[in-house]
Specification:
This protein is mainly α. Helices cover about 80% and strands about 0% of the residues.
């Protein structure tokens, strides 16, 4: 039975949502007022995600359509803005270093995911493939791109997205803690997070929580990895004999690259401008974490089921451990 307190919270969830979002935004931008910067220090990506999760699980979803649409586009704008804080030459060096393992891990994850999902747990073909695709490349974006090619049902898409979403939320909390426990350098952590965490949002959030260099390395490698959406969608169409299906291309990745080019060659004489855009992008990224957390619901948790979740967890463990082995021993 739902308690009286829970009913009250759910009845006022829209008001609570606005208050939480307004408060986070207010404290974040106190950073621009001299003498008040300390008041915004507590508003970090993990804290924003945690507040969103607590809100969703206690008060229910409020403005779900607005929440979903805003989180999608605000994340893309934030990632492009982060490009104004990066140097193209340094980014290329970081991306090249992780490229070899990226190729191996993408193919390996798809093969292992097929074995776990289809052979061990007898999960339906589409759901298993969607979870594997989301784990291999970039979470929800990969699932959204591959789903139409597979002609996946809404229920299959929901289960795959729910599985990835739950694991993303967990990753944003535990990865920085594990990184510190293992005494990983920021470069090592950025590489690990970019490959082992599913969604770009959680990768960027975990990198930001770990440090400046970790954020740059994680973002660059993750977005390089995300470009695999395009060939994978075509390969999926060929493997599953799907023709005429529209493929969703993550265009914001190319704008991120353009932002790095502009920052490196056009704004090198005025670094303050690039730093200002980058600073705003970091703050909008934190707000995005709240939107993402607030998108979770008990219905999503119930829809996922145990078998798809176990497939997602086992794949996640495999790719996390293999990436750590690559970082430390290769």
């Amino acid at each position: 039975m739902i308690s009286t307190a829970t009913k009250t919270l759910q009845a006022k969830n829209k008001m609570i949502y606005v208050v939480l979002l307004s408060s986070l935004t207010f404290f974040l931008f106190l950073d621009y007022i001299s003498g008040l910067q300390a008041w915004s220090a507590w508003v970090t990506p993990p804290v924003a995600l945690f507040l969103g999760l607590i809100f969703a699980l206690t008060c229910g979803q409020a403005h779900p359509k607005f929440n979903k649409k805003t989180s999608k586009y605000l994340l893309q704008y934030s990632v492009v803005g982060l490009g104004f804080g990066m140097n193209l030459h340094s980014a290329l060096a970081s991306g090249k270093e992780g490229m070899e393992f990226t190729v191996i891990s993408v193919v390996g994850t798809l093969v292992i995911g097929w074995f776990i999902g289809r052979k061990l747990f007898k999960i339906d073909r589409n759901t298993s493939y969607l979870i594997s695709s989301g784990t291999a490349i970039c979470g929800g974006s990969a699932i959204a791109a591959v789903g139409p090619v597979l002609r996946a049902k809404d229920s299959e898409m929901s289960v795959a997205l729910g599985t990835i979403f739950i694991l993303n939320a967990i990753a944003l909390f535990i990865f920085p803690a594990i990184g510190h426990a293992l005494n990983m350098t920021e470069h090592q952590f950025g590489t690990w997070a970019a490959i082992a965490i599913h969604d770009t949002s959680s990768v960027v959030g975990a990198g930001a929580a770990y440090g400046e260099e970790a954020l740059k390395v994680a973002t660059t490698i993750k977005l390089t990895r995300a470009l695999w959406i395009i060939p994978m969608a075509f390969a999926t169409s060929f493997i599953f004999k799907s023709k005429g299906q529209k493929i969703s291309i993550p265009w914001f990745i190319f704008f991120f690259i353009l932002a790095m080019v502009v920052n490196t060659y056009l704004l090198n004489g005025v670094p303050e401008l690039g730093a200002a855009i980058n600073g705003i992008a970091r703050k909008t990224l934190t707000i995005t974490m709240f939107f993402i957390g607030a998108s979770l619901s008990l219905d999503v948790l119930k829809a996922v089921g145990i078998k798809p979740l176990i497939q997602g967890i086992l794949l996640w463990i495999v790719i996390s451990l293999s990436t750590l082995a690559y970082i430390y021993f290769v």
